[in-house]
Design goal:
Nucleotidyltransferase, domain 5, 2 domains, six-stranded mixed sheet, five-stranded mixed sheet, 11 helices, 11 strands, globular
């Protein structure tokens, strides 16, 4: 790896319902970050309303960028490049962030870097707050578990920006399964945190929900466990009995964590990874974090909770390495890039 240049990256993230901007120095040190959440707005719908999300991004994008610059004590004249999430995500939301980033890059004559949202989650493992102790940098080769509302996959990362997808979900992502099970149990949106809270008072051994191991592959499947929870709820309703929500939540969570943890560990051994990264929204789940933190075989990098959900710091981190290694983007780039990027 060549010696990389110093650079400050301003990044914008609007892939779903968070309007975010962050400024990162040299791919790791976070100088300032702002996230405008729309969670309360979408809670009334039980999920993200795409058109409402994109309109809210329009209202929030400029104030969020200005606040991130203010927190960093910088101006646009101090920025070396602009990074932006170009997908995957909601098209209307992505367009708002993309156009803001294009405008800044064009107006300030700065390079523009398009970042895949999944790549951003992966690079959250490199970020730390400026002025705080610097955590150890992940060491290649890395086994990466990307686990979120829309994606669950295992990737082998052999160097910066070099990935090989080993397996992914064949149906529901883990986060999607959490959301659907939360609705079955009449738990509030967002589903992941609601299921985790309910599970704290439950017995994870009461229900023996299925684990889809899909032997011979590194793929995942969570539709079966979602159906198993549905059948249990229907059985209780048919008998006129109240649902044991904590036990159902705890048993469901235990089954999902079991599969995610064990398949990742097996893949790390098989591909001789030095370390493991667990990233994405579901990496905030306490049971999943504890499973990886309790094992002693591999060093595991799990971002702090504030970096697990959508944010622009992770986009800035990935953007830095793309900028430093010469991967800038044309101003007319489209949204929704493929993944893994080559």
């Amino acid at each position: 790896m060549p010696i990389l240049p110093s650079a400050r990256i301003l990044a914008i993230e609007t892939s779903c319902d968070e309007t975010a901007c962050a400024i990162l120095e040299n791919g790791r040190a976070l100088l300032g970050s702002t996230v405008a959440s729309q969670m309360d707005i979408h809670a009334r719908y039980g999920g993200v309303f795409p058109e409402v999300a994109s309109r809210q991004h329009v209202l929030s994008i400029i104030p969020v960028v200005e606040e991130a610059l203010s927190k960093s004590h910088l101006t646009l004249n101090d920025i070396d490049a602009i990074a932006v999430t170009r997908g995957p995500g909601l098209a209307g939301s992505l367009v708002v962030g993309m156009n803001a980033a294009k405008g800044l890059a064009l107006g300030m004559s700065l390079p523009l870097i398009g970042v895949n949202h999944l790549e951003g989650h992966l690079y959250s493992a490199w970020v730390h707050n400026a002025g705080e102790s610097v955590p150890e940098e992940p060491q290649f080769p890395l086994m990466v578990l990307l686990v979120s509302g829309g994606h669950t996959e295992l990737d082998l990362m052999t160097d910066h920006l070099t990935y090989k997808r080993l397996g992914s979900t064949l149906d529901d992502a883990a986060g999607e399964a959490f959301d659907k099970v939360a609705r079955l149990l009449a738990l509030p949106y967002p589903g992941g945190p609601s299921v985790q809270r309910a599970a704290e008072d439950g017995d994870p051994m009461r229900f023996n929900f299925p684990r889809a191991w899909l032997e011979g592959t590194w793929d995942f499947s969570f539709s079966g466990i979602k159906t198993a929870v549905l059948r249990e709820t229907k059985a209780y309703e048919t008998k006129g009995r109240s649902l044991p929500v904590p036990d159902l939540a705890a048993s469901f969570q235990a089954a999902v964590v079991d599969v995610l943890f064990n398949k990742t560990m097996r893949a790390a051994r098989e591909f001789k990874a030095k370390e493991i990264i667990v990233a994405g929204g579901v990496s905030a789940n306490r049971a999943l974090r504890q499973a990886f933190q309790n094992q002693k075989e591999f060093k595991v990098h799990i971002p702090p909770l504030w970096l697990c959900t959508d944010n622009a710091a992770m986009i800035a981190a990935a953007g830095y390495y793309r900028f430093a290694l010469g991967h800038t983007s044309p101003l007319d780039m489209d949204v929704q890039p493929t993944w893994p990027l080559r």
